[in-house]
Known about the structure:
Blueprint: E1 4-6, E2 12-14, H1 21-34, H2 37-42, E3 44-52, E4 58-59, H3 61-73, E5 77-88, E6 91-102, E7 105-118, E8 121-128, H4 131-146
Parallel strand pairs: 3-8
Antiparallel strand pairs: 1-2, 3-4, 5-6, 6-7, 7-8
Amino acid sequence: MTPKLQLADGTTENHKDLDSPVEVVTRFLNAMQEGDVETVIGLVADDIVYSNVSLPTIRGKDQFSKGARAYYRHHLGFQVVVHRIAGNGSSVLTERTDALILGPFRMQFWVCGVFEVENGQVTLWRDYFDWRSTMLATLRGLIGLLVPSLRAKFPATD
């Protein structure tokens, strides 16, 4: 099966080179969205560095694995729309909208990600986001608990 990347305009792209850095990042984000924690962990290197800029950095596969397993163990959901993805050598840049979901609570926010991929594994994952828009997304998520029609959702892609 050739993985397909869901793009913001609702189209998909087939990727044939399964080991290209762009394809590794695509598979990584898809596995996160599908809740496939074993694939997520399998796609990171032993010396992974994961950083949400301005938050503590996670270093090493053991620490990353603990965090990933805890995230999914608590039934948290993740969805992503990739607006842009570009690769240059081992570097991959993404512009995305991520959604974090817990039951009826859903928050969506813009993220720019930088990935480094070596030998088919992610060695660096650094996300940049705006605290103001993240706080507004949290507020909208809380309001959406009371008024479901105001819940954030991705546009239909059918």
